[in-house]
C-alpha cells in the first residue's frame, strides 16, 4: 500500500514542483529524494505492517510478501535509474518535472499490479501503468520517430486493453464475480471448464502476453523501444516489464486452477518457445544497440515467463532475482547508451581505452544479461529453468531450447565487449554527446558490484520471501 | 429477453471493432473502432449484471446486491476510456502537426 499511495503523492509533488522550480537540476534532486524516500517506505513495509491501514480495501488490493519484495526491487531499480540517467531525462525536453511525475504514476500503477485481488484493479493498474508511458514515448514532440512510436504504442496498447476487458467480462459472465479468490473457488467445482470462462482466460492470456511483449504479440516492441527517447526506453524495458510479468503470474496463479492442467503448460510452452526464438534470432541481425536491446528484452521476457509456466516457489524466487539483475543491468547499459553519439555497435569502439571504468561496468552488465556464472543474470536463468523442470520434467525440449537461446544471446551481447576492448576508434568524434561526470563510472561500478553480489549470494534477497 | 441476444450483439460489435482496428488505415477511425470495442464490453457488462441479479433473486435472496459490481465496472471503463481519449487525441494531433496526415501508412520510419 505504501508504494501505491506514496508514489501517487510523489507524482503530484513533482507536477507542482514543475510550476515553482525553474532549475532542471533541482527538479532532478527533488525526484531523487522522493524516490529514495519511496524505496525506504517500501522496505519498511517489508517486515512490518503498512503505514496506511485500510481494511476496507482488502477485497481489492491484498499485498503478499512477494508483492512487497518486488515493490522494493522496482523502487530500488528506479532509484538507480534516476541517479544514473537524471541528466539524460533533463535533456529530453522542456517539461522535466512532468516526466518525473509520469514515472511516479507508472510506479503507482505497478504497485496496483503487484497486489490486485480483483479484476477491476487489474484493469486499472494496467491502464495507470501504460497511459503515462504513451506520453513518455512521445516526449520528443518534434521528433517524427518519437511521434510514430507513441502513436503505435497507443493504438496497440488501447487495442490490447479492449481485448483484456472482453476477457474479464466473459469470466464475469461465467463466474459472477471479479474477485480472484471467488473465481478460483468456483472454477474448482466447474469441470469441464465453462466455455465463456475458457474464452475469457484465453483473451486475458493474449492481452497479458501483449503487455509483456511475448511473441507472437511482440511486434510493437522493437518499434516502440527504438522510437522512444533512449532514457525512457530504459524505464519501459525494465521496471514496467517486470511489473507486467508479476501481474501475469498473479492473475493466473490462484484463480485459474482448472487451467493448470497439461493444456495450460502446452500453451505457455509454445508462447515461451516463440518468444525466445524470435527475440534471440532477430537480435543477432541488429546493427543498432538500442534495437538489439529491444529484441533482447523480448527474449528476457521469455525467460521470465517460465514462472508463468511453473507457478511454484522456484519461479517466484527466480522472478525476484531475475527482475533485479535484469533491471539493473539494462538500466546500466541504457544509461551509457543514452549519453552516446552513435548508438550502433561501432559507437562502442575503443571505449575501454578512454573510459576503463565504464567499460568494466558495461562488461559486467552484458555478462549478466547473457547469463554467465557469478552474475545475477546466471542465477536468474538457472532458477527460471529449474522452476520449469520442477513443475513438469517432460518438457525437456523447452529447457534445452532455453539454454541454446542463452548461448545464441552470447553472440550479440559480446559484440559490445568486442567493440569496447578489441576495436580501435577510427573517427575523432567523442564517444559521448555530453561530458560524463566523475561520479558516473563509480556509480556504474556500484551497480555492477550489486549484480555480482546477487550472483554470489542470492540469499540476501531471497531471505525476505520467507519472513 | 434471453441473455443470448445481448451476448451476440456485444460480440458482433466487438468483432466489428477488432476488424476495423486491423483493416483501417486512418488513425482516428482505428481509434473509433477501439472505442466500439470498449463500449461493446460495457453493454455486455450491464447485461451480465442484470443476469446475475435476476439469478440471485431467483435463488431466494430477498434484497440482493448481486451484479452491482459490474455496473460499477462500467463507470470505471468510461472514466479510463476518457483519459485514454485525452492522451490519444493529443498524440494524433502531435502526429498531424508534423506530417499533416493521420494515415498510419506513414508510420514506417522505424522499420529497418
Automatic annotation (TrEMBL), chain A:
It is found in: Cell membrane; Endomembrane system; Membrane. It is an enzyme of class 7 (translocase). The keyword Nucleotide-binding does not apply. It is a multi-pass membrane protein. Coiled coil: none annotated. Keywords: Cell membrane, Membrane, NAD, Quinone, Translocase, Transmembrane, Transmembrane helix, Transport. The chain crosses the membrane at residues 6-22, 29-52, 64-84, 96-114, 120-139, 151-175, 195-219, 231-252, 264-285, 292-313, 319-337, 358-383, 395-414, 442-466. It catalyses: a quinone + NADH + 5 H(+)(in) = a quinol + NAD(+) + 4 H(+)(out). It comes from the Bacteria. InterPro entries: NADH-Q_OxRdtase_suN/2, ND/Mrp_TM. Belongs to the complex I subunit 2 family. NDH-1 shuttles electrons from NADH, via FMN and iron-sulfur (Fe-S) centers, to quinones in the respiratory chain. The immediate electron acceptor for the enzyme in this species is believed to be a menaquinone. Couples the redox reaction to proton translocation (for every two electrons transferred, four hydrogen ions are translocated across the cytoplasmic membrane), and thus conserves the redox energy in a proton gradient. NCBIfam families: NDH_I_N. NDH-1 is composed of 14 different subunits. Subunits NuoA, H, J, K, L, M, N constitute the membrane sector of the complex. This is NADH-quinone oxidoreductase subunit N. It comes from Polluticaenibacter yanchengensis.
Automatic annotation (TrEMBL), chain B:
Its EC number is 7.1.1.-. One of its GO terms (molecular function) is NADH dehydrogenase (quinone) (non-electrogenic) activity. It catalyses: a quinone + NADH + 5 H(+)(in) = a quinol + NAD(+) + 4 H(+)(out). The chain crosses the membrane at residues 6-22, 29-48, 72-96. Pfam families: Oxidored_q2. InterPro entries: NADH_UbQ_OxRdtase_chain4L/K, NUOK/Mnh_C1-like. The keyword Translocase applies. It is a multi-pass membrane protein. It comes from the Bacteria. It is an enzyme of class 7 (translocase). Keywords: Cell membrane, Membrane, NAD, Oxidoreductase, Quinone, Translocase, Transmembrane, Transmembrane helix, Transport. Gene3D superfamilies: 1.10.287.3510. It is found in: Cell membrane; Membrane. HAMAP family: NDH1_NuoK. NDH-1 shuttles electrons from NADH, via FMN and iron-sulfur (Fe-S) centers, to quinones in the respiratory chain. The immediate electron acceptor for the enzyme in this species is believed to be a menaquinone. Couples the redox reaction to proton translocation (for every two electrons transferred, four hydrogen ions are translocated across the cytoplasmic membrane), and thus conserves the redox energy in a proton gradient. Belongs to the complex I subunit 4L family. This is NADH-quinone oxidoreductase subunit K. It comes from Polluticaenibacter yanchengensis.
Amino acid at each position: 500500500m505504501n508504494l501505491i499511495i506514496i508514489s501517487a503523492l510523489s507524482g503530484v509533488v513533482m507536477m507542482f514542483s514543475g510550476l515553482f522550480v525553474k532549475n532542471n537540476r533541482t527538479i532532478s534532486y527533488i525526484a531523487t529524494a522522493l524516490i529514495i524516500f519511496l524505496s525506504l517506505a517500501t522496505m519498511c513495509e517489508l517486515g512490518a505492517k503498512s503505514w496506511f491501514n485500510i481494511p476496507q480495501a482488502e477485497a481489492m488490493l491484498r499485498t503478499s510478501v512477494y508483492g512487497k519484495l518486488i515493490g522494493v526491487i522496482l523502487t530500488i531499480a528506479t532509484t538507480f535509474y534516476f541517479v544514473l540517467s537524471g541528466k539524460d531525462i533533463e535533456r529530453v525536453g522542456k517539461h522535466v518535472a512532468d516526466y518525473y511525475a509520469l514515472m511516479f504514476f507508472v510506479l503507482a500503477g505497478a504497485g496496483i499490479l503487484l497486489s490486485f485481488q480483483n479484476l477491476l484493479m487489474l484493469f486499472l493498474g494496467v491502464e495507470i501503468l501504460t497511459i503515462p508511458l504513451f506520453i513518455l514515448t512521445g516526449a520528443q514532440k518534434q521528433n517524427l520517430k518519437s511521434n510514430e512510436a507513441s502513436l503505435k504504442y497507443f493504438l496497440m496498447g488501447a487495442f490490447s486493453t479492449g481485448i483484456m476487458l472482453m476477457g474479464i467480462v466473459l469470466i464475469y459472465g461465467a463466474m459472477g464475480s471479479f474477485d480472484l479468490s471467488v473465481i478460483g473457488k468456483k472454477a474448482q467445482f466447474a469441470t469441464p471448464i465453462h466455455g465463456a470462462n475458457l474464452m475469457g482466460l484465453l483473451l486475458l492470456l493474449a492481452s497479458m502476453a501483449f503487455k509483456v511483449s511475448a511473441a507472437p504479440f511482440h511486434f510493437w516492441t522493437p518499434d516502440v523501444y527504438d522510437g522512444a527517447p533512449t532514457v525512457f526506453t530504459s524505464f519501459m524495458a525494465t521496471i514496467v516489464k517486470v511489473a507486467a510479468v508479476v501481474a501475469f503470474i498473479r492473475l493466473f496463479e490462484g484463480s485459474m486452477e482448472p487451467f493448470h492442467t497439461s493444456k495450460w503448460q502446452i500453451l505457455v510452452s509454445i508462447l515461451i518457445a516463440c518468444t525466445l526464438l524470435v527475440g534471440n534470432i532477430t537480435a543477432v541481425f541488429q546493427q543498432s544497440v538500442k534495437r538489439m536491446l529491444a529484441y533482447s528484452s523480448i527474449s528476457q521476457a521469455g525467460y521470465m515467463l517460465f514462472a508463468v509456466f511453473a507457478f511454484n516457489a522456484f519461479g517466484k524466487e527466480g522472478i525476484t532475482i531475475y527482475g533485479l539483475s535484469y533491471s539493473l543491468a539494462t538500466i546500466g547499459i541504457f544509461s551509457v547508451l543514452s549519453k552516446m553519439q552513435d548508438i550502433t555497435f561501432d559507437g562502442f569502439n575503443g571505449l575501454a581505452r578512454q573510459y576503463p571504468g565504464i567499460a568494466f561496468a558495461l562488461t559486467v552488465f552484458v555478462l549478466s544479461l547473457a547469463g554467465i556464472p557469478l552474475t545475477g543474470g546466471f542465477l536468474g536463468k538457472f532458477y527460471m529453468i529449474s522452476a520449469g523442470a520442477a513443475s513438469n520434467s517432460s518438457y525437456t525440449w523447452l529447457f534445452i531450447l532455453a539454454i541454446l537461446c542463452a548461448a545464441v544471446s552470447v553472440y550479440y551481447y559480446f559484440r559490445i565487449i568486442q567493440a569496447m576492448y578489441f576495436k580501435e576508434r577510427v573517427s575523432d568524434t567523442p564517444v559521448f554527446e555530453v561530458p560524463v561526470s566523475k561520479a558516473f563510472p563509480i556509480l556504474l561500478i556500484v551497480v555492477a558490484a550489486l549484480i555480482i553480489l546477487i550472483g554470489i549470494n542470492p540469499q540476501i534477497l531471497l531471505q525476505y520471501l520467507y519472513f | 429477453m434471453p441473455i443470448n441476444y445481448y451476448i451476440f450483439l456485444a460480440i458482433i460489435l466487438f468483432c466489428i471493432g477488432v476488424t476495423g482496428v486491423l483493416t483501417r488505415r486512418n488513425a482516428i477511425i482505428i481509434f473509433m473502432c477501439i472505442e466500439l470495442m470498449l463500449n461493446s464490453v460495457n453493454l455486455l457488462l450491464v447485461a451480465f449484471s442484470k443476469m446475475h441479479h435476476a439469478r440471485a433473486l431467483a435463488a431466494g435472496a430477498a434484497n440482493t446486491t448481486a451484479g452491482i459490481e459490474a455496473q460499477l465496472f462500467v463507470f470505471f471503463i468510461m472514466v479510463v476510456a476518457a483519459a485514454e481519449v485525452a492522451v490519444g487525441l493529443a498524440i494524433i494531433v502531435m502526429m498531424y502537426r508534423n506530417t499533416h496526415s493521420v494515415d498510419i501508412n506513414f508510420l514506417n520510419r522505424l522499420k529497418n
